[in-house]
Fold this sequence. Notes:
Elements: H1 19-50, H2 53-69, H3 71-78, H4 83-106, H5 112-141, H6 147-175, H7 178-198, H8 211-224, H9 226-241, H10 245-256, H11 261-283, H12 291-311, H13 315-343, H14 349-378, H15 380-399, H16 402-418
Amino acid sequence: xxxxxxxxxxxxxxxxxxxNFRLYFAGQAVSILGSWIQxxxxxxxxxxxxxxxxxxxxxxxxALLPQLIVGPLxxxxxxxxxxxxxxxxxxxxxxxQALVLAGLTAFELIGPALIVAMSLLLGVLNAFDTPLRQSLxxxxxxxxxxxxxxxxxxxxxxxxxxxxxxxxxGVLLALTSEALCFALNGLSFLALLIGLLLIRIDTPAxxxxxxxxxxREGLDYVWQNQPIRLLILTLAMVNLTASSYAVLLPVFARDxxxxxxxxxxxxxGAAGCGAFLSTLFLATRQAxxxxxxxxxxxxxxxxxxxxxxxxxxVVPLALAAMALLGFGISVGNVGINMLLQxxxxxxxxxxxxxxxxxxxxxxxxxxxxLAGLLAARIGAPLTLALEGAVLLLxxxxxxxxxQTLREQVRxxxxxxxxx
Length: 419
C-alpha cells in the first residue's frame, strides 16, 4: 500500500516510492559500478597483453553473442520458474566468475584463450541475468503506470556507473592492477544479493507448457506485432553500428590520441555522462507515444556522433562526440525498452524482454566483431565513419515510417490500458 507521503515523490523518481524497488535500486547501483570497472580493466588487459584490435572484437563478441543465441530461450525458460530465486543464483555465480578472473590475472595465468573463455561464460550468465532483472522490475514497483519510470531509473543507474566506473577504473589501473578491478567487481555483487534477499514480492505467475511452446508464443507475438517488430529492428541497427565504438576505444586512446589507461577511462566516461543525461531526460517522460520520436532522434544523434568522433583530431573534441554518442545510443535503447515493456501483456513480458536483450547485446556483439576485424584492415577512424554512414541511411528509411509507427503505438497502449 502506498502512503500519502509516498505520493509526494517527484515525478522523475516516482518508482522509488516502492520499498522493494528501493532495495533493488541500492544493490544494483553498487553492482553496476563494479561491472563497469571490470569491463574497462578487461579491455585494457587484452590490449596490453596482445596489442590486437581483432582480439578486442573477438572478446566482445564472445561476451555478447550468448545474449543473441541463448537469450530468447532463457527468457522462455525463466518464465516457467521463480524468477527471484533464479536471479539470486545467477548473481552468486557472476560473483564467483569475477573472483576467479581476478585470481587468474593476479597469478599471471591469464592469456588470450582464457580471456575469451571467461568472456563467453560471462555472456552465458548475462543471457539469464539481464532478462531476469528487467522482467522483475514490474514486480518490484507493483503498478503498471510506474514501470516506465522504473525502467528509466534502472537505465540511469547503468549509465551513472558507466560515467563513474571507467574513469575510476583508469585510476585503479594506473595505481594497482587489473586483478584488483576484477576482485572489486566480484565483491560488488554482494550488494544486489542482499537487496534481493530482503525484497518481499508475490511470486509472478509462471508460464505453462514446455520451454519450446512458451518460446514460440513469445516469438509469434513479437513477429506479428508490427510496432514491436519495427522497434526491435531499430534496436538491432543502432547496436550493430553505433555501439561498436566500445571495441575500438583502446585503439583511439593509445594509438590515435597517444594516451594511456586514464585516457581510455575518460573516453568511456564521456559516453557514460551522455548516457546518464539521457536517462535523466527519459525519467521525466510520461507520454509514451512521444518516445517514438525520441528514439528516432537518438538514432540520428548516434550517427552524427560516430562521424564526428571518427574525424576528431584531439581529445577534447573526441570527448564531446563521445558524450553525444552515449546520449543517442541510450535514448534509443532505453526508449525502446520502455515502449516494449509497456506494450507487452504481463504474461508475455519476460519473453519480450528476452528478445529486447538478445537484440540489444547480440547485435552489439556482431557489430563489435565486425568493427574489430574491419579496423584491423582499414583503421579505426574509417571503420567508425563507415558505420555512422550506414546508420544515417537507416534513419532516413525510418523517418518515412515514423508517423505510422507512432499511431500504432498509441493504439496498442490504449488497448493495454483498456484491458
